[in-house]
Every structure is written in C-alpha cells, then in structure tokens.
Design goal:
GO cellular component, one term: membrane
InterPro entries: AAA+_ATPase (IPR003593), ABC_transporter-like_ATP-bd (IPR003439), ABC_transpr_TagH-like (IPR015860), Bact_Polysacc_Export_ATP-bd (IPR050683), P-loop_NTPase (IPR027417)
CATH superfamily of one domain: P-loop containing nucleotide triphosphate hydrolases
Pfam families: ABC_tran
Distance between the termini: 34 Å
CATH topology of one domain: Rossmann fold
Organism: Streptosporangium becharense
Family: Belongs to the ABC transporter superfamily.
Largest sheet: 7 strands, mixed
Bound molecules: adenosine-5'-triphosphate
Structural class: alpha/beta
Order of helices and strands: EHEEHEEHEEHHHEHEHEEH
Strand order of the largest sheet: 2-11-10-5-9-8-7
CATH architecture of one domain: 3-Layer(aba) Sandwich
CATH class of one domain: Alpha Beta
Shape: globular
Number of strands: 11
Helix content: 25-40%
Number of helices: 9
Length: 286
C-alpha cells in the first residue's frame, strides 16, 4: 500500500470521487463537523481499484490431479489444472476524508469486505491503487484475537498490537471490559463467547485507541440496541477527532444512524455514492 504524499493528496483531491459510479448523488460530501484543521482533507484515495482472487484447484473431477494426468500435463508442457479468477472489485474510485464515516452497502458478494481488506493493505491490487494517510486498522468479524486465550489476555495483547505501552493498557483495561459488557466472561477463553460477545469485545478493544482510518466489518451487527448506541457514540467521537471510519453492516439502520456518507457496491462496482438517506432509499428500492 502506498503512502499518500502531500502532492498526491492535492492532485487526487481534485479528481472526481467516484469515476466508476453509475450514479453520483454528490461526489464529495461535506464532512459534518468542522472541528479539526485536517477535517475534509483526504485520508484514503481509491483509484480505479481492481481486486482479483485466484482460486487454484477449481478443476473438474476429470481434470483433478492423479499421476497419469500430471504426467500428461508435463508431457504437453501444460500448467496447473484450472485456476479460476474471481473479479471481486471492478474499477472502484473514491476519496474519503478526515471526519467521514462511510457506510458500505450491497448484496452478498458485492465486494464490500474485499474493498475493506484492500484499503487495510491485506489484499494487493490487481490494478489501480489505494493511497492512505496514516495506518488503516481493520476490525473484522475475524479480527485477530485468539479464541483459546481469555478475554483478559486478548485485551492486553490487542492493546499491545495497537501500539500501546503497559501503562496505557492498564489505564484502558477497565474501560474496555465495561464497554464490551462481557462482565465475568473476561476471565474465560474467547472460545466460550457468543458471537455477539466476541464482536463487542473486538470493537471495545479496537475503539480504545483513536485511529486515522478504522475499518469495521459487520462488528456491530451482533450487538444489542444499547451496545449499538454506545458504539455509535464512539464512532461519532472518532469522526470528531477527524478520523475516518468505514462501516460494513447489513443492518441499514446502523448505517443510517452512524454514517454521513454511503457507498453502494453492486457486483464489484460503485452503483451510488452520496448522503445516507438518498443512497439507502435507492438501495431499498433496487
Ligand atoms: N478469499 C477469497 N477467495 C476467493 N474468492 C473470494 C474470497 N473472498 C471473497 N471472494 C469472492 O469475492 C466476491 C466478493 O466477496 P466479498 O466477501 O468481498 O463480498 P461482500 O459484499 O463482503 O459479501 P457479504 O455481504 O456476503 O459479506 C464474491 O464473489 C466472493 O465469492
């Protein structure tokens, strides 16, 4: 992933925000709260991004590896049997700014998680580029907490992984446990948690630190109403500190209540990009 230089940031900021979009409601929505001098400046620029997964071994039964087939391939100088390509993100372009909370919506398989993982630098672009200002942090349903360790150990390790020192961890520990609402379960291995408890703990850990770019994949989906309200307050605070938040959620109420902008992905392309009410109304109709 390339870092965003000042020059790139200036030039890119002048480019259209969603060149691949079918519809643009308003291409560069104004950030809601002018609190920080960085507010409104780009944090993430996605430039004609294509992501292709290669799935090896997607061969038919007849083509699958047995010794005779392998020998024939060698003799005919053929490569591996059947490699299938899945073009998950197809020419996506947009600019996210300090203070934005951007909801990503779209049907199953439309490329939301793939796009988040690419912004986090976990998937290399097939073509195009992602430029980021600061370190993006991905909080996904499978965020790297260890199931066999207790909540307590995961909090400590998670905080270290985010760059905190021991005294900062100590200072944040109680707040994380309180926020997650997991109570005495903090002493138990995470493998004993319900999916909601795990998701709440992950969000509590990740949001204990402010992030330049926080990418949240479905982590709020399993929380109850009270937890959602607390999470939304945290996201709001992050935006006020001029961070950028990306949120994938199938629950559209969460998106509408939390975000100031929504990007609708359809079959790997941006179908619409604009203010939540307009985009969600169109998405609900389509
Ligand atoms: N690791 C992978 N290997 C191969 N193909 C993948 C992989 N992950 C996702 N895909 C494919 O890429 C496409 C986009 O998937 P992605 O998970 O990004 O969509 P999504 O919008 O997040 O879906 P959902 O709402 O179901 O979570 C789908 O066709 C999916 O099958």
């Amino acid at each position: 992933m390339a870092e965003l230089t000042e020059e790139q940031s200036r030039v890119k900021a002048e480019e259209p925000t969603a060149s691949g979009a079918d519809v643009k409601v308003h291409p560069a929505p104004e950030p809601a709260r002018p609190h920080d001098s960085r507010e409104g400046t780009p944090t993430v620029i996605v430039d004609d991004l294509h992501i292709i997964y290669r799935v090896y071994g997607a061969a038919t039964e007849a083509e699958k590896g047995n010794a005779a087939n392998a020998l024939m391939r060698l003799l005919k100088r053929q490569g591996r049997p059947q490699m299938k390509e899945i073009h998950a993100v197809r020419g996506v372009s947009f600019v996210a700014r300090h203070g934005d909370a951007i909801g990503l919506v779209g049907r199953n398989g439309s490329g939301k998680s793939t796009l988040l993982r690419a912004i986090a630098g976990l998937l290399p672009p097939h073509s195009g580029a992602v430029y980021t200002d600061g370190q993006p942090s991905l909080l996904g349903v499978n965020a790297a907490l260890m199931r066999e360790l207790t909540g307590e150990r995961n909090i400590v390790l998670g905080c270290y992984a985010m760059g905190m020192n021991p005294s900062q961890v100590k200072q944040k520990y109680d707040d994380i446990v309180d926020f997650s609402g997991i109570g005495e379960f903090v002493q138990f291995p995470m493998s004993t948690y319900s999916s909601g408890m795990g998701a709440r703990l992950r969000f509590a850990i990740a949001s204990a630190k402010s992030h330049d770019v926080l990418l949240i994949d479905e982590a709020l989906a399993t929380g109850d109403r009270e937890f959602r309200r607390k999470s939304q307050d945290r996201i709001k605070k992050m935006r006020e500190e001029a961070g950028t938040v990306f949120l994938v959620a199938h629950n559209l109420d969460v998106i509408e209540e939390t975000c100031n902008r929504v990007i609708w992905l359809h079959k790997g392309k941006i179908k619409m990009d604009g203010d939540p009410k307009t985009v969600l109304a169109a998405y609900n109709k389509g």
